[in-house]
Amino acid sequence: MSTPSNTAAPAAAPRVALSPSRQLLRKAFRHKGFLIGFVIVAFTAAVALLAPVLAPHDPYHQDLLMRLKPPVFMGGTWEHILGTDQLGRDYLSRLIYGARISLLIGFVAAFISAVIGTTLGVLAGYFGGRVDAVVMFILSVRLALPATLVALAVVAIFGGSLQVVVTVLGLLLWDRFAVVMRAATMQVRQMDYISAAEVLGASLPRILWKDVLPNVMNALIVVITLEMAHAIILEAALSFLGLGVQPPLPSWGLMISEGKSMILFESWLITIPGAALFALVLGINVLGDGIRDITAPEGRN
């Protein structure tokens, strides 16, 4: 009869816990939507930053002898890959420089809105009571004013320019920031570390800056991406109506507006900037959805 072996089975190696940053990075690489959105936005940002290097021609140079040349894929020449517009300006160069306008307006307008909305939302969520009532009244007044109509009226009064469009959009798109930050701050306000900071005598600015704001940052980043896309769409709409960015700046919305009279004959004048605008807005929205998913506490994907 064989004797039982005293050799114990080797213990399984303990699993090494990943740091929160490593876990977040792993989720990001596994999230297809986040990767697609990140690639689109990063590519557009790189094109905008390298516009002087990538643009084959001066986007403002006019050559009436070369007007309305078709793109290469429609029988054009490689000298103007995407053709030329009604004034003979290279369409690819204007498209590349137009990325700068769209990203600049989207980022600056979202930043201004984030500052206003986050300040109001955090104060309302942290203090509650009368402060919350005042903020909600201001928010109700803002929501009663249609953003597009107000933007049209203001731009019509003060004139269309890049500075006016950015300022108007920044002052109109803060409502979503206020709503989200208010709800997030109300949840954080109930946490024990906030009570501990108050008991230890921490000042109000330190609590808001060091304890509250870092814990609502994930929601803030998601809203910023969504409002960037919203600002870009509104700018394109204003430019299309002739009340946004003014010529000769190469705005994608302005390019669509300038090509609308030729839609039945040279449809690519609208299709090309329209496709670029669609791709950028889609990328920003998909990126925002991806950030929401990978930073969700329940880890959904």
Automatic annotation (TrEMBL):
Domain called ABC transmembrane type-1: residue spans: 99-288
Annotated membrane topology: Multi-pass membrane protein
SUPFAM superfamilies: MetI-like
Coarse class of the protein's main subcellular location: membrane
Tagged with keyword Chloroplast: no
Intracellular or extracellular location(s): Cell membrane
Positions of transmembrane segments: 34-55, 101-127, 134-158, 164-184, 216-243, 263-287
InterPro entries: BP-dependent_transpt_permease, MetI-like, MetI-like_sf, OppC_N
Protein source organism: Pannonibacter anstelovis
Pfam families (UniProt xref): BPD_transp_1, OppC_N
Family designation: Belongs to the binding-protein-dependent transport system permease family.
Keywords: Cell membrane, Membrane, Transmembrane, Transmembrane helix, Transport
Database matches in Gene3D superfamilies: MetI-like (1.10.3720.10)
Name of the featured protein: ABC transporter permease
Keyword Secreted in annotation: no
